[in-house]
Amino acid sequence: MKRSNAVTRRICWLVVMAGVAIFSPSEFGTGSAAATAITIVDQNGRVVPNALPSATSQIVDVTVGPNGMFQFSPGTVNISVGDTVRWTWGSSNHSVTSGTPCTADGRFCSPNDTNCGAGQLSNMGAVYQHTFAQAGTYSYHCALHCEYGMIGTINVEPAPMAQSAFSRKVHGEAGTFDVPLPLTGNVGIECRSGGATNDYQMIINFVTSVTVGDAAVTSGTGSVSSFSVSGSQVTVNLTGVTNVQRITVTLFNVNDGTHMGNVPVSMGVLVGDVNGSTGVNSTDVALTKSQVGMAVNSSNFREDVNTSGTISSTDVAIVKSDVGTSLP
Ligand SMILES: [Cu+2]
Predict the structure, then answer these.
(1) Which of 15, 27, 61, 266 could bridge to 248 as Cys pair (CB 3.0-4.6 Å)?
(2) How far is the CA of 186 from the centre of ligand 1 (A)?
(3) What residues contact residue 290 under an 8 Å CB cut-off, 6+ apart?
């Protein structure tokens, strides 16, 4: 296995050397043949790609060996997660091979993302594209002309980071209270009932102002009835959110001017789990009983499970009726 790899590598080098020997003179030259190729490429009128993220997933164009030059144009491209880069060959005998110059790392390569180490060359007019699903910096090069500086970089920007998220409910005249929904680690548990139509409201805060393309339930049962954006805060109104589940709402194409991407926020729904233990049991009943008649405030609002603004025997009865349920 190792030996055959070594042999393969040696053969590849021979092919590369032969390629340099055969193709370099015309490509280095400024003769009429090369000039003809240049003109054809230019007549394609390929637009120089916009390096800034757009409001939706985009395809960014890169020319491989424009005017016979050993370069990718543009050499550096900034895109967002989910965007596609489309390389079009402006001259022959080049490859797009991922990896820090000048070693293939197998992450992507022309013409079809397979056997990248071979550095297969394509000819003028060829098109290869690759969609980048992960944020990061990707170096690539031409397997034949890397050592002449034919290298490129794709910067894939991550989605904007949400700063915090909450499940918000109005408790009658007692006021508005938020259950934190951590963005990492254990899911936040919403213990309050959603009323007749199981309505909930998520608040998602970003560091800076954002625009949002769409919002939808991407996991669990429920649907987005509406959403709105005010500066750095996104409000998502949900309906039909059933009890005893984990639900994920995804904000699509969130754009903060620098980054763009999708932002998921998850919530556990377990009515009556006033202490957020992921199960409803006698402890929750006792906690609720202990707050009956107390004014609803930031430290006991979870016990007002029907969000009436008062903690009463009705809340105790709701918690009792949910004893035995637990978060899936
Ligand atoms: Cu090349």
Answers:
(1) 266
(2) 50
(3) none
